[in-house]
Amino acid sequence: MTDSITYSDICILRLSAIGDVCHAVSAVQAIQKAHPNAKITWVIGKVEAMLLADLPGVELVVFDKKQGKAAYQQLKLQFKGRKFDVLLHMQVALRANLVARCIPAKVKIGFDWVRSKELHSLFINKRIAAQQQAHVLEGFKGFAQAIGVADYQPNWAMPVTEQDQITADELLGAERLAGRIFVISPAASKKERNWLAERYAKLAEHAHSQGFHVVITGGPTELEVTLSNEIIAATSTPIVNLVGKTKLKQLLCVLKRAALVLAPDTGPAHMAVTVGTPVIGLYAHSNPKRTGPYLYQNYVVEVYHQNLLKQTGKTAEQLPWGTRIKGSDLMSQITVDEVTLMFDLVVKKEQL
């Protein structure tokens, strides 16, 4: 589904999460190239806006979910008297659907029937083309194609300042900048999606033995701080601990300086993709073909498919695309040997 309409005022709706807005940036920037005279407004979550602040040519309108009903009223007030040519409604969650009600647009494009959930269909009047077993990023490409953007190879121009890079470089230090940096971003949003601390430590030891400087990154939450401390305690390998010490843009700059990143299903894995840093993704609960690091899906180590078959008796292709599986110990099925083997493969293939 494409069209040849000229658009002058386009609204994007994708509130969260970090990984998903990273995927969406590639679609937004492709839209900018195809419709260079269009004004683009992006309604986005508060945390995600911290990463994308000053995105070239894009007005970010922050929706802060913590404000409750007041956030919806503020949005209505901000858009009063305005009418977008088109709203690209890129999120099916109920909160996002309610946000869509507050955005005046002539056309509201949403997901196809199969991917519509949580009353999504009630808040749109046009749909993107159906896709079979698509990565999240491919879904966003569908929105760009729906307004006349030809198929494109995703690329990113992420908004960071010189000061962001300087701060990141100061945290890394001259010695590490002069060598190869291996970043471990160990924590996902839920504990069950994290690999084991002692196994991360083993990869740190292996990377160090191969001449890499090891850096751990993450936010200031108790889960992230505890996990990073456990990793450091499990090895004598020198590790630079940047957990809780970087803002999102500074973290992006750290990831850009890295030669290689190791991460579970978490936002920084996708941030690394946007700056061209190879990622080894560790997956057990969600399908990496849908949510894995987009440019580095061949570098994923996963136990998702075997557990899906064990729990349901069916393959991913036989179930609703994106089916998640449950279990508190699934990540423990990923072995140190498997990840070490992938590490060596990536180092050789990427000539790191």
Automatic annotation (TrEMBL):
Glycosyltransferase listed as a keyword: yes
Recorded superkingdom: Bacteria
Keyword annotations of the record: Glycosyltransferase, Transferase
InterPro entries xrefs: Glyco_trans_9 (IPR002201), LPS_LOS_Heptosyltrfase (IPR051199)
EC category name: transferase
Molecular function GO labels: glycosyltransferase activity
EC number: 2.4.-.-
Pfam families in the cross-refs: Glyco_transf_9
Record-annotated membrane-spanning stretches: none
Protein name per its UniProtKB record: Glycosyltransferase family 9 protein
Organism: Pseudoalteromonas haloplanktis (Alteromonas haloplanktis)
